Amino acid sequence: MRILFLLFALCGAFVVSAFDHAEHLCSAAGKKAMAKTTVAAPEEQWYDVQHVAFDISLSNTTTQISGNVITTAKVIAASLPVYAFELDPTITIDSFRFNNQLYPVSSIQSTGSGSVRKFTLPASLPQNAVFSAQVFYHGQPPSGSGFFDKGLNAVTAPSGTKLMYTFSDPYLAEDWWPSKQDLTDKIDSADIWITVDDTLKAGSNGLLKAVTPLPGNKERYEWKTNYPIDYYLISVVVAPYSDYSYYMHYTDGSGDSMLIQNYVYDSLAMMTPLRKANFDTTGLIVDHFSKIFGRYPFDKEKYGHCVAEPLPGGMEHQTMTTLGGSLTTTLIAHELGHQWWGNSVTYGSWADIWLSEGFAAYCEQLYVEHFRSMAAANEYRTNVFNRVMMQAGGTVLVDDTTDVNRIFSSRLTYDKGAAVAHM
Question: Where are the beta strands (DSSP E) in 250-349?
């Protein structure tokens, strides 16, 4: 434990901000190249986001989205003459309020590729001033179907179930909400309200505070998280889910317990014994990793999964992973490991992503070692080493952060990252 924190002190690459992506063996296929290494507009660095409040409507069959998001932030520059944010040009802004004052949509200017939107304030705000910006919007952006492709993904499960999940990693939050995509600025807290048909459920971050019936056979799922969260870790998944939840119990003598909440489709009766056993194991892994790394960092809220099998792996959305692939326990362990490595503490640059993916990939080995056998862990570890050394060269430090395939290199970021973590 002391060695791990010494490593962080030496590297200096982590910041207390949140981050990242998916399953260890998910290859680079389908990743969208993006020449972006920092915030899209320098004006975004003039403020610090304190809270975001979503009130949006979604379905499970389309990427159609409508609603509004309120961003509350504090000026950290000497003054704030311009408010800048990111929203894809396929999304239409219907109205805009700044500090509760309505302004014409024409006052929002698009720049560059069109995703950067800027509002020039009638008078500059001074340093430390707190302001709110409310964007009402709607649109139907193109759908994605995997990793690093689109922010909204309307897909069909192998069973035929329709579902829609968000995926914001690394720079896709702008596809579905007006955001500041900056690794070093965690959002202090968030309210995430999602209106859906009453035959559906909407999973998200934090705790479900209420399900409010609405006219027209609609329901609003009202989630809230009070833990700092990075922009790409905010998520929504919509499907005809059933809720399979239970409480895990810590074995550290505290007597504490925590909610494990899983949204699964095709009804609980369709869940195979193996799948149920894997979900039941999640609480045991939470307890084990808490003994290694310290208490699960979001234990006042929950951990769990929204199943989205068309996704070829998992995405470690904070407190509620979007889980696809084969739903194996090693995948569960990897995404759970991210709650410490990547979500609770986050690197400050995409160049240091191995500090998240490498440690999460190493958590797979720690799971196998404890829950199977040392022999099985040694075999697992040897296979990781062999994949690293199947070719020469390459560093865990990403040398080209404009290349998404390099950022999420399976051999270097995941496998070599896990090898370095073990070392």
Answer: 257-265, 302-307, 314-315, 321-323, 346-347
Whether the CB-CB separation of 321 and 327 falls below 8 Å is answered with no
Is the pLDDT reported for residue 316 higher than 80?
yes
From residue 155, how far is each of 17, 202, 238 by CA, in Å? 30, 15, 11
Q: Count the residues in the chain.
A: 423
What is the CA 211 to chain-centroid distance, rounded? 23
pLDDT of residue 1: 37
d(CA 163, CA 306): 11
Rounded to 5°, the CA angle 390-394-395 comes to 130
3-class SS at 362?
helix
- Residue for token pair 């807290």: 189
3-state secondary structure of 325: coil
pLDDT tier, 148 (very low <50, low <70, confident <90, very high otherwise):
confident
Rounded CA separation 295/252 (Å): 10
The tokens for 290 are 């808490």
Q: What is the pTM of this model?
A: 0.91
Average pLDDT, the chain: 90
Task: Give the pair of three-digit tokens for residue 56.
Answer: 């949006």
Q: Of 168, 157, 159, 154, whose CA–CA distance to 310 is shortest? A: 157
Residue whose C-alpha is closest to residue 265's, from 193, 329, 324, 314:
324
Quote the DSSP letter at residue 310.
T
- Interacting residues of 280 by C-beta distance below 8 A, sequence separation 6+: 246
Q: From CA 314, how far away is CA 26, in angstroms rounded?
A: 9
Q: How far apart are CA 345 and CA 340, in angstroms?
A: 6
Q: Calculate the alpha carbon distances from 242 to 173, 202, 264, 265, 283 in Å.
A: 27, 11, 5, 6, 19
Please state the rounded mean pLDDT for residues 219-240: 98
